[in-house]
Amino acid sequence: MNTVGIYFRINKKLDHFTLDLEYEFERGVLVIQGESGAGKTTILNCISGLETPDGGRVSLDGRVVFDSAAGINIPTRQRNIGYLFQNYALFPNMTVHQNIIYGIKNKPEYKEKDKREGLLEYAEEVMETFGIAHLKKKHPNRISGGEKQRVALSRAIVTKPSLLLLDEPFSALDQQTKEAVYRQFTDFKKSFQIPTILITHDAAESEMFADSRILIKTGKIINS
Amino acid sequence: MLSPILLSLKIATIATIFSFILGVFFAYILGKKNVPGKNIWETILILPMVLPPSVLGYLLLVAFGKRGIIGSFLLETFNIQIVFTWIGAVIASCIVSLPLMYQNVKSAFISQDPIYERAAQTLGSSEWKIFRTVVFPLAWPGIISGIVLSFARAIGEFGATLMIAGNIPGKTQTISTAIYFAVESGNTELANKLVMIMVLFSFALILVLNSWLKKRNYTGKQG
Q1: Which of B122, B136, B218 to mutate: most A Cβ within 10 Å?
Q2: For residue A139, which phi and psi values (nearest 5 degrees)?
Q3: Which domains does chain B have, with CATH numbers?
Q4: How does residue A46 score in pLDDT terms, banded at 50, 70 and 90?
Q5: CATH of domain A1-80+163-224
Q6: CA-to-CA distance for A147 and B100, rounded, in angstroms?
Q7: Do B119 and A89 touch (CB under 8 A)?
Q8: Is this prediction's pTM over 0.90?
Q9: pLDDT digits (tens, 9 = 90+) for A98-119
């Protein structure tokens, strides 16, 4: 069961309603669309392990990371899920480069000298792809919103995650920056091929990026 | 005149090192974890700030005296005497400066946006690594404030130190006790010099700290 693709069934009691949904998708971008307060971020937090559902199951390409019935709850750090937070959460005490290689350094392969080079080279390639190589030595408070977004996305994908979670990745950007970032995101989708869950309240964004889509309201899927 | 100054610096430095270790440890555990009896622990840590120095000194004498629980153990097991030694002064200074360290570091920890810890978790970091690379560096301004204020408090400690360590010139006499006994014995010249040194030193310490803190360009909060 669920040996390929991403599967999640989440049940969690929140303050005003109960999050109760189940979905499975094989690849591409799943867009979860809904008004603010519909429980969208909680879904991502439950999938990543930052929050624990009251019940349910989450599996990534057959690897079960959460199963309440079987008592499985793999810690976030071992789930290999890339997460782009709404405000990017770039570490302010580190440079852009230090931010990007932060996750790589936690990989067991990083300790092996010959593999370390490969990991760092990949980080360089990703930075080149996203056009942020020239920002390497800068601190996050010295770069623009669009640049922060690209740094955060690079940081999330250099670890080669099995799933990428994007929480309203475009909401903090102004309209002009958004246009450019949309184009880049379309390219990103084509070149990296990482299964992705994107959260948005914007129907146009959903239309633009979704390979599959669910609409949620007070914790339940109302249309998919 | 130099001996009490050097001894004060030695005592305050060692006391600050210990209060730094304890302060950071308790601030992290009590500020970020759900520990049973949290309020009680916190009250015990902050108590030395409100207790009269004589009460604190007396309690230390009871605990570390030759017949005290800790004092008798240390004397019988390691042949270490605390009362009327500079170690006693270190203990007194550490205890009175710990609340300042704890309060500053805890405020720095809890005012941090938890999103950074979450991001570090998703990037594969263990709790210890998150502490080393994210929580501690982002709390650095608060930690520095804690260190400076604790050091200043430790160097100025008088009451409890006098009770547990006494005023033995060259052995346990610190600047504060030296000033008191200089005034008592009518040696105004020595008292004036020591007071001047103490005021200038404290002034410089706070001035440097304030200007450094104003120069910090990140707060750990998202902006």
Answers
A1: B122
A2: -90, 155
A3: 2-215 (1.10.3720.10)
A4: very high
A5: 3.40.50.300
A6: 40
A7: yes
A8: no
A9: 999 999 999 988 988 888 999 9
